[in-house]
Amino acid sequence: MAKPGECGGDQVLLKDTKLMDVKLGQLGSWLAMRDFTPGGILGAIRRGHQRYYNKYINVRKGGLGGLSMLLAGYIVLSYMWSYSHIKHDRRRKYH
């Protein structure tokens, strides 16, 4: 059995842990270990794009799943961007 602070055979360092595997009590220290420099953020965006592209776009038997998710995301974002304008129009009387 590994001592606290040592990395055992089946233990993973908190820095290498995925977000879904982080416990709620460890979230603050996990976020403190992330790289929030412009280069780190750009690298995270590149990795996310590469993961999305390989999973949904660059497949042998592709369907409409990846492209429809991209379109749905665009629709939701455009609605959020124009919500303040839409909100003022809904109470306006047209007479």
UniProtKB/TrEMBL annotation:
<feature type="transmembrane region" description="Helical">
    <location>
        <begin position="63"/>
        <end position="83"/>
    </location>
</feature>
<protein>
    <recommendedName>
        <fullName>ATP synthase F(0) complex subunit f, mitochondrial</fullName>
    </recommendedName>
</protein>
<keyword id="KW-0066">ATP synthesis</keyword>
<dbReference type="Pfam" id="PF10206">
    <property type="entry name" value="WRW"/>
</dbReference>
<keyword id="KW-0007">Acetylation</keyword>
<comment type="similarity">
    <text>Belongs to the ATPase F chain family.</text>
</comment>
<keyword id="KW-0597">Phosphoprotein</keyword>
<keyword id="KW-0813">Transport</keyword>
<dbReference type="GO" id="GO:0045259">
    <property type="term" value="C:proton-transporting ATP synthase complex"/>
</dbReference>
<keyword id="KW-0496">Mitochondrion</keyword>
<comment type="function">
    <text>Subunit f, of the mitochondrial membrane ATP synthase complex (F(1)F(0) ATP synthase or Complex V) that produces ATP from ADP in the presence of a proton gradient across the membrane which is generated by electron transport complexes of the respiratory chain. ATP synthase complex consist of a soluble F(1) head domain - the catalytic core - and a membrane F(1) domain - the membrane proton channel. These two domains are linked by a central stalk rotating inside the F(1) region and a stationary peripheral stalk.</text>
</comment>
<keyword id="KW-0406">Ion transport</keyword>
<keyword id="KW-0138">CF(0)</keyword>
<keyword id="KW-0375">Hydrogen ion transport</keyword>
<keyword id="KW-0812">Transmembrane</keyword>
<keyword id="KW-0999">Mitochondrion inner membrane</keyword>
<dbReference type="GO" id="GO:0042776">
    <property type="term" value="P:proton motive force-driven mitochondrial ATP synthesis"/>
</dbReference>
<dbReference type="GO" id="GO:0046933">
    <property type="term" value="F:proton-transporting ATP synthase activity, rotational mechanism"/>
</dbReference>
<keyword id="KW-0472">Membrane</keyword>
<dbReference type="GO" id="GO:0005743">
    <property type="term" value="C:mitochondrial inner membrane"/>
</dbReference>
<keyword id="KW-1133">Transmembrane helix</keyword>
<dbReference type="InterPro" id="IPR019344">
    <property type="entry name" value="F1F0-ATPsyn_F_prd"/>
</dbReference>
<comment type="subunit">
    <text>Component of the ATP synthase complex composed at least of ATP5F1A/subunit alpha, ATP5F1B/subunit beta, ATP5MC1/subunit c (homooctomer), MT-ATP6/subunit a, MT-ATP8/subunit 8, ATP5ME/subunit e, ATP5MF/subunit f, ATP5MG/subunit g, ATP5MK/subunit k, ATP5MJ/subunit j, ATP5F1C/subunit gamma, ATP5F1D/subunit delta, ATP5F1E/subunit epsilon, ATP5PF/subunit F6, ATP5PB/subunit b, ATP5PD/subunit d, ATP5PO/subunit OSCP.</text>
</comment>
